[in-house]
Amino acid sequence: MVHMDDTDRAILLELQRDCRQTYADIAHKVALSAATVHARVKNLERRGIVHGYSARVNPVALGLSTLAFIQVRLENNSNCATVAPNFVQFPEVEECHSIAGDVDVILKVRTANPHALELLLYRVKQVPGVVRTNTMVSLSTAFEHQPLEPAGGV
């Protein structure tokens, strides 16, 4: 873990809320000069705390209205690292996580409709090392992209 003071935390939260705001806008909110905010942001980037900026898109506007989570059970000699290169090839897969419990991997996927999800499931099941899947379809999303705060003591 890296040390962050309260000012770095405030800047980090502002960047997560809206990374397109100017250094002057952030400076006004955290009571610093724009130059100081700029220097602190560059320092956060250099230290690897901020590792990129991206646009959040509306999946429904892109025609991807079906959100699902696919639990994947793997063969004993497989793990997330062995199957992830296959899953990353599927454009519907938004995230891939190694997890503890009765299954080994969970995929967050977005498709146009349930039929497209069914076709994706067929492809997932063809990946070497996959034993079985269990799929949970999201009915609605209460929130996503909650700004992260550093763990206590950093």
**Secondary-structure class:** alpha+beta
Terminal Cα span? 6 Å
| SSE topology string | HHHEHEEHE
Could you list the spans in which at least 5 consecutive residues all have pLDDT below 50?
none
Q: Assign the CATH topology of the largest domain.
A: Alpha-Beta Plaits
Give the overall shape, derived from the CA principal axes. elongated
For the largest sheet, list the strands in their spatial order: 2-3-1-4
Per CATH, the superfamily of the largest domain is Lrp/AsnC effector binding domain/regulation of amino acid metabolism (RAM) domain
What percent of the residues sit in helical stretches (DSSP H or I)? 25-40%
The residue-averaged pLDDT reads: 94
CATH class of the largest domain: Alpha Beta
Main sheet properties: 4 strands, antiparallel
Percent of residues in beta strands = 15-25%
Which CATH architecture of the largest domain?
2-Layer Sandwich
- Indicate the radius of gyration in whole angstroms: 20 Å
Number of separate structural domains? 2
> How many individual β-strands?
4
Q: How many DSSP helices? A: 5
Structure characteristics:
four-stranded antiparallel sheet, Arc Repressor Mutant, subunit A, 154 residues, 2 domains, Alpha-Beta Plaits, 4 strands
